[in-house]
Design goal:
Elements: E1 8-10, E2 13-15, E3 18-24, E4 27-33, H1 36-47, H2 54-71, H3 97-105, E5 112-113, E6 116-117, H4 133-136, H5 165-171
Antiparallel strand pairs: 1-2, 3-4, 5-6
Length: about 170
């Protein structure tokens, strides 16, 4: 634990809050314990460019807060992973002034449906159309329905993957 504004170094990154070494199934793991609002400042900066519109950064803060709180207590030692599988959390290095401001302006705001936190999943690019939750997971949630998306300018909107003959034969049934 450190009260130093520069955070605690672990490898090439700095973190706020406490770093605790835990014994996991695969050996030692370091878990960063900190409050939700401080955590979100890094997530907003890790998920979105700092120069995106203020409203977009604020929407990301609300979605990320909802997702993190909905995941709380489900994984045992930690609540969310620091990678794309949950939300990108990079510690102090991804915090930006605009991200911190978006978190501050939306403090305490969450997304609910029927009085409960929603599963506020999000993605970087849908390729132009999102999927309904029932097409991806076992349960269809009324608030997660497929809609056209407007990310045609995203650098990740289209992609290609090339296979050679040998690779295709190896993966074909």
């Amino acid at each position: 634990r450190s009260n130093d504004a520069r955070g605690i170094w672990l490898g090439k990154r700095r973190y706020r809050g406490d770093l605790r070494v835990e014994i996991g199934a695969n050996g030692l793991q370091v878990v960063n314990y900190l409050g939700i609002e401080r955590y979100l400042s890094s997530v907003v900066g890790g998920e979105m460019p700092k120069d995106w519109p203020t409203q977009a950064l604020q929407a990301q803060a609300v979605a990320a807060r909802t997702y993190a709180l909905q995941q709380k207590g489900k994984s045992g030692v930690f609540d969310v992973k620091s990678i794309e599988a949950s939300q990108v959390y990079l510690g102090l290095e991804s915090e930006t002034v605009s991200g911190r401001e978006a978190v501050r302006k939306t403090r305490g705001l969450v997304l609910t449906h029927g009085g409960k936190l929603i599963n506020a999943v999000f993605h970087s690019s849908s390729g132009g159309l999102t999927e309904s939750s029932g097409d991806v997971w076992k349960k269809q949630m009324s608030y997660l329905v497929g809609v056209p998306d407007y990310d045609q300018n995203s650098p990740k909107q289209q992609w290609n993957l090339h296979f050679g003959t040998k690779k295709l034969r190896a993966i074909s049934p």
